[in-house]
Amino acid sequence: MKFVEELVVEEFLPTVRSMLAAELRERGFTQREVASVLGISQSAVSKYAHGEVTINDEIADDERVREHVDDLATGLADGSVTSVQALVDLEVLIRELEAGGDVLARLHEYEEPELADHPSFRVHDPTSELRTAERVRSSLRRGLRIIENTSGFASLIPAVGTNLVACTPDASTIDDVAGVPGRIVDVKGQATIPADPAFGVSEHVASILLAARERGSDASAALNVRYDPDILDALTADGHTAVEFDETEELQSSVGAAIASAPEATVLYQTGGDGIEPITYVLGPDAETVADDVRQVVSTGL
Q1: Which residues contact 244 (CB under 8 A, 6 or more apart)?
Q2: Which of 54, 81, 83, 219 has the greatest number of beta carbons closer than 10 A?
Q3: What kind and span of H or E run contains 34?
Q4: What is the pLDDT of residue 88?
């Protein structure tokens, strides 16, 4: 099994770096200067110069690749293009070449021929449901790693457990929201994640996120932690706007009313009731940001 990203690393980058190194050398750059511009070692530049790095002819012969390499080499040589701008340009080119029918897509389907005949999606369509869902899960995994690596996070987990969720751009139901099956729990002082993220496994935290989005919040991720006034103070000190909602009322309307009263709110909280544990919900643009926001709270010593 090979991902298209592996082809980028194994085939595209060596080929384009070799082509850029050659073009820059032709424009009078020394090996040291080429190494500095491309962010590689001088020994790597030497290998490119002596043909010791295998290049992919299909990539090297692609007209857009040749045009980009020529334009970037010219810009890097005359100073009109920075290394960062060159990186952004190549990132955009890679996304274009991954689209169905383009060179990276063709190479990928050659490596994994079954992809070409899959009946339900085009894997190389950047807007496909599969790729959208996988981006959400990848974001969640990165957020969960932050949680796992945050010493003391378990102290914020409420009795009902914690979940970190994230949704697709057009989410409308809990099936469009991914989370941790079984929730994140405290096991001997360690935040423990029982399974890989999946869609449709979080009902409550997902419902909070969806209700907030329905009333205009641009959040795409949410995380619940225990309620504590000190936690709220730490979050507001970090720039969040907090608003209370009534857990005893119908969830969609109570969260909606809270967001309507404070559209910029990124923290929702309820102080509990008969048989209801008080909880704080942190919202954000993606799972990594939300996890890092809560990590900042932990760093205050709460």
Answers
A1: 258, 268, 269, 270, 271
A2: 219
A3: helix 31-38
A4: 82
Quick: pLDDT tens for 62-81. Answer: 998 999 999 899 989 988 88
Tell me how far the alpha carbon of residue 168 is from its chain's centroid: 12
> Please, are residues 258 and 192 in contact by the beta-carbon 8 Å criterion?
no
Instruction: Look at residue 237 and tell me whether its pLDDT is greater than 90.
Output: yes
Structure tokens at 61: 């012969």
* pLDDT for 119 beyond 50: no
Section 13-23 average pLDDT: 92
Q: Which of 195, 179, 184 is nearest to 161 (CA)?
A: 184
108 membership: H or E segment, kind and range: helix 103-111
Q: Give strand pairing partners of 276.
A: 273
Which contacts qualify for 259-265: CB closer than 8 Å, 24 or more apart?
259/211, 259/212, 259/215, 259/216, 259/217, 260/215, 260/216, 263/215, 263/216, 263/217, 265/212, 265/217, 265/241
> Alpha carbon 96 to chain centroid distance?
19
Task: Please name the residues in contact with 30: beta carbons below 8 A apart, sequence gap of 6 or more.
Answer: none
- Evaluate whether 299 touches 151 at the Cβ level (below 8 Å): no
% of the chain with per-residue pLDDT over 90: 57
Element at 257 (helix H, strand E):
helix 251-261
pTM assigned to the model: 0.62
Residue range 211-225: average pLDDT?
96
Where do the domains of the chain lie, and which CATH numbers do they carry? Answer: 4-117 (no CATH), 129-299 (3.40.225.10)
